[in-house]
Design brief:
alpha+beta; six-stranded mixed sheet; four-stranded antiparallel sheet; globular
Length: 183
């Protein structure tokens, strides 16, 4: 059954509002799901936007390609010039970071993997989104990082969702390539 965007917002709002009752005082990076996907909470990245697109990654008979796309609207307002950097983790290690409206890709082995995105703009680790993937060799996967504003009391939370190839390529082609290194 496909979940609608509105149902996802209601579910996320419920989690955010109920979260303090269930995880009071607990750092999200100590939870098993986050530990399986994210890297160390104290590792930060400098990310920069490339002038040219990333050289194409091609899936092979032994590897799959995963593109992570930060899907900010392509408008130029003050909010989008502040350098929103989001760390991307796979299987408990940070793979890099994306900044503003950008993307990067990586090769992964076939099998079950755990993806994590974590907002680097907050001092808290509460800005985390997770997604599992069962990768198949020779396949390409696209994941969009989106920002959901839930009002001034909650603020912005992250969402990480798979997108189909058409939408993934559209976001990728209208974005810049992000390179990063740890601080």
């Amino acid at each position: 059954m496909k979940t609608t965007y509105g149902a996802k917002i209601i579910f996320l709002m419920t989690l955010v509002l109920a979260g303090p009752f269930f995880a009071h005082g607990q750092d999200l990076l100590t939870l098993p799901a986050a530990m399986a996907a994210c890297g160390p909470g104290n590792l930060k990245f400098d990310a920069s936007l490339g002038k040219s697109p990333q050289p194409p990654l091609n899936p092979t008979s032994t590897k799959a390609v995963v593109y992570v796309l930060q899907d900010l609207p392509p408008i130029r307002s003050l909010f989008f010039h502040i350098g929103i950097t989001t760390r991307v983790g796979v299987d408990g290690a940070w793979a890099g970071a994306i900044k503003d409206r950008s993307y990067f890709g990586l090769l992964i082995d076939p099998g079950v993997h755990h993806l994590c995105v974590s907002g680097q703009w907050r001092n808290s680790s509460s800005s985390i989104a997770l997604h599992g993937i069962e990768a198949k060799a020779g396949e390409t996967y696209y994941f969009a990082v989106r920002f959901l504003y839930l009002g001034s009391a909650v603020g912005v939370i992250l969402d990480l969702e798979p997108v189909d190839e058409d939408q993934g390529q559209f976001i990728q082609q209208s974005s810049q390539y992000s390179t990063s290194h740890s601080k």
